[in-house]
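Dear H.,

Thanks for agreeing to be a second pair of eyes. The structure we're designing against is below in token form, covering all 301 positions.
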């Protein structure tokens, strides 16, 4: 198998994205599993643009120090290939979770949503907008922790250290999860990130995107004009349904004021979590990560 920078050995591909391939691999020097993202510059029309985008993603991801964001270990170029070495996540994407277990129990929906909001609170506090929160960019680990990945189209508020990667008329992120105001050219904001959380909660609760259509332009148009279909589940608490619909408000002013506020609403709903066989089915009460978090939770209470 190929070795990158005489240190990182590739094993098998994990995922392929718009900018490259993520591999499972190992750090030969430290003898630990890693994820290695490779960009083959010749695959893109503009080599300089590929380099700029990749450098940008590495710097933004490394800037965020949060348990819900994979750690960046290394970054560089080897033989014309750009590489980024990150924490290896042993888990499943939430997209796969929805496909296999949809609709999810309310407590699991709240658990996933609350963790995403905790990451967004950190990102927004650092002046960063993710711009691409969606089930495929969330990884559920066996200890029930959720990691937010792919900051490739993230943007910084009021700062020049991260150059813009989109031009007028271009759509940042994934169009099917895009806040309606972005269609009209309004810049991404904390509120547009919260809209994507609304899309996530709705899909977790129903198994479908709120304005789902096979045709992309139809789905975008519906998101601008229509109200989402009711969440037809009698077990969904009123506060969770109301929160989801508020997050999906057409106007940014109609959405909750912050990721922290959304977290505060979701947190109390995380209780009596049933097992998810094959995904999260072990007793986590003695899990070291949960033990650590349980103690920290007592601070300030």
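And this is the sequence the design step returned. I haven't edited it by hand at all.
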């Amino acid at each position: 198998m190929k070795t990158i920078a005489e240190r990182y050995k590739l094993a098998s591909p994990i995922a392929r994205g718009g900018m490259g391939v993520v591999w499972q691999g190992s750090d030969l020097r430290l003898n630990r599993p890693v994820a290695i993202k490779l960009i083959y510059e010749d695959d893109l029309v503009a080599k300089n643009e590929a380099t700029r985008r990749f450098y940008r993603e590495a710097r933004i991801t490394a800037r965020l120090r949060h348990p819900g964001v994979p750690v960046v270990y290394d970054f560089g170029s080897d033989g014309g290939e750009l590489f980024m070495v990150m924490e290896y996540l042993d888990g499943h994407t939430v997209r796969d979770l929805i496909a296999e277990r949809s609709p999810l129990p309310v407590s699991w929906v709240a658990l996933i949503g609350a963790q995403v909001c905790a990451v967004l609170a950190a990102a927004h506090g650092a002046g960063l907008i993710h711009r691409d929160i969606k089930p495929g960019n969330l990884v559920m680990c066996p200890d029930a922790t959720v990691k937010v990945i792919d900051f490739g189209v993230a943007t910084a508020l009021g700062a020049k250290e991260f150059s813009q990667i989109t031009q007028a008329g271009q759509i940042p992120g994934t169009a099917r999860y895009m806040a309606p105001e972005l269609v009209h050219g309004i810049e991404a904001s904390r509120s547009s990130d919260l809209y994507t959380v609304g899309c996530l909660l709705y899909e977790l609760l129903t198994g479908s995107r709120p304005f789902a259509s096979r045709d992309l332009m139809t789905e975008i148009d519906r998101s601008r004009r229509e109200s989402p279909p009711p969440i037809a589940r009698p077990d969904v608490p009123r506060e969770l349904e109301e929160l989801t619909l508020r997050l999906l408000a057409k106007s940014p002013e109609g959405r909750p004021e912050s990721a922290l506020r959304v977290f505060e609403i979701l947190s109390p709903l995380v209780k009596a979590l049933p097992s998810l066989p094959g995904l999260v089915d072990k007793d986590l009460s003695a899990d070291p990560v949960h033990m650590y978090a349980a103690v920290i939770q007592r601070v300030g209470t």
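Two observations from my side: DSSP finds nine helices and eleven strands in the chain. The CA atoms of residues 242 and 296 lie 30 Å apart.

Warmly,
E.
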